[in-house]
Design brief:
With 109 residues, this protein is an alpha+beta fold. It is built from three helices and two strands, in the order E-E-H-H-H. It has a two-stranded antiparallel sheet. Homodimer. Interacts with FtsZ.
């Protein structure tokens, strides 16, 4: 296993990487960095931990929305998939509101 030094949101991390997985890891790091940078640059949230949570939720939501990749035609999606997506979006919205409220309180104290 190799170790790669990467930078996410201006901070360096040393990550373990299986042999041959360097390109995939670099792509994942770039995607996480883009997501976290976009959240930070929006200006609403400054705490690195909160930015990371929102980025993780956003990326997870994108994965849930992506159709499953299968070599043969994919079976019809279960009826619960759209309900799950709606629930996940509602959760993300709720977390956004809670974090925004927490940031507002932090700024006034």
């Amino acid at each position: 296993m190799k170790q790669l030094e990467v930078t996410i949101l201006g901070q360096s991390y040393l990550l373990g990487c299986p042999d041959g997985g360097e390109q995939a890891l670099q792509a994942a790091v770039a995607q996480v960095d883009r997501e976290m940078t976009a959240i930070r640059d929006a200006g609403r949230i400054k705490a690195r931990e909160r930015i990371a949570v929102l980025a993780a939720l956003n990326l997870a939501y994108q994965l849930v929305q992506r159709p499953a990749q299968a070599p043969s035609p994919a079976p019809a999606a279960p009826a619960g998939d759209s309900a799950t997506a709606a629930q996940l979006q509602a959760l993300i919205d709720r977390i956004d509101r809670a974090l925004e409220a927490d940031e507002a309180v932090s700024r006034t104290t």
